[in-house]
Structures are given as C-alpha cells and as structure tokens.
Amino acid sequence: MRKKKNHVFADILQTVTRYFLVLVAAVVLMIAFSGVRVVKSGEVALILRFGKLVGNTYEDQVHEPGLLFAFPYIIDEVITVPTGNVMEQVVTTHYTSGPMTSLRSNGYVITGDQNIAIISASVKYVVSDPVAYALHIKNIPDTINAFVSTAMVNEAAGLSVDELLTSGKDDFARAVMERAQAKLSAIEAGITIGTVELTNVSMPEEVRDTYEMVNSAAVSASTQIEQAKQYRENLLPQARAQADTLVAEANSLYSNSVAAANADLAEFWGVLDEYRSNADLVRTRIYSAKVSEILAKIEKIHIVQDGDTKIFIP
Q: Which helix (H) or strand (E) holds 10?
C-alpha cells in the first residue's frame, strides 16, 4: 500500500514538473521574443537599452514602420511615437460655461481695458522630433495646456475686450500659437503647433446679454457709417461730373457770347467810319436794310394809295 502511494505521488510530481518546465519554457520564449515588434504605419520606434537611447545618429535612433528586432524587455524598452497623425487637444483653462459665482474657481482672462473674457481653444500639433518628444517631456498634454494657457493670459492683456471678441480674434489666436511654440521649442518638446483655433470667446454669462446689445449697436453704427461712406463715394463722382458739365456749358456760352459781341463791335466800328465819311448814304442804307428785314417777316403786304386815310391790315 505504501509503495502504491509513493508511486502515485511520484506520478503527480512528475506531471507537475513537466507542466512547470513547459510554463518556464513558454515564459523564456515570451521574454526572448518580447523585443520583436511591428511598428505601425504613422509611427516610429525608439529603443532604450538599460534606459539609454540606442544609436548615435538620428537614422540609427529612429526606426521607421516595419518589423523591429530588439533585446527582451528586461534589457531593451521599445517606445513608439505617433508621427504621421495630427493630434488635437482642447484647452479650457480659461473657460467657464456657467455663471462665474466664484472667480477663484472659474477660468477667465483679463483684457487690457480691465474686462473679463472666457476663452476655449483647440490646439492641433504634430510630432516633429520623435526623440525629443519621447525623452524630454513626460506629459505632453499638460505641457501644451500650460504653455497655451499662459500665452492666452499674456496676449489678452494687450487687447481690449472689443478687439478680443470681434476683429482681433485671428491675430490673438496667431499670437498665442507663436508664443506657445516658442516655449515648446525652448524646452525641446519635439512638437510643432499647426493651428490654435478659438472655439469659444465670450463674456461671462452675467454680462453676456448686455455686451451683446452694446456690440450689436456698435455693429449697426459701423454698418451705417460704411453705408454713408459708400453713398458719398457714389454721389461725389456724379456731382463732379455734373459740375464739370455745367462749367463746360458756361465756358462755351461765354466764348460764344464774347465772339458775338466782338463781331457786333467790329461791325459797329466799321459802320461808324463809313458814317463819318457819308452820313446820309449810310443812314439810307441802314434804313433800307432794316425795312427789308421787317418786310421779310410779314406774310401779306397791302399797298396804300396816295391820299388814302384808312389803312386796314387783317
């Protein structure tokens, strides 16, 4: 009986040992092949060997998509970096959707004219340096949020609230992007910001309606001013053209009148010289000419006989 029990125990021990050896072999194989990775499209990989980056040049350090062979993970650590995609992050540090009942717990910026505005933005960026991205900064989202939020505060301090909410939006977003990118480049974060899009720029809820009324009135005034300028631009050329026409007509009338007066004057001086030479002859000639002009205008002529005392002209 004792021999039988020993035999059963030996069988169990042998079976356990066999499975243990299989498990150990599987673990060893997993560890051995743990360094084999497939780098996907749109990604690159870096290898850290005992915490140190492998490779002396950029080409040796950065591994393109494809099959990657590295030592087991207890020796090498493979880090993948997304380089082919545009990543997006929302920054709401200075934005509050509800009432600003407590300024200490709500986000906002102060403009250059001492007003409060709330801003939210969407930041789109790409990884431009995989090595710096993977090794220099531990938390990229927090870093971007901090730098963009700080840039918003700095740039808002140089604008009036009207500029920030209306015509200055694009310039403000561009300035925020440039300031944040300068900070990221200074710490070698390895990312490049493509755009900073302002998704919401407004006044706090408590004063939003009042500001919108004021803004609407300002827009209406600006529209009326532009319409008046347009009317002026259309009216002035017409008035100038009409004035030029009147001046031209007056000049023409003046020239014609002067010419006619000069002609009459020349005729007068000519007749005067003749009159001084032979007054009777000139008088008779002028009289005959005037009578001829008058008779030419009369349709019917009645000849009156000598001695008639009645003249009837129908």
A: helix 2-33
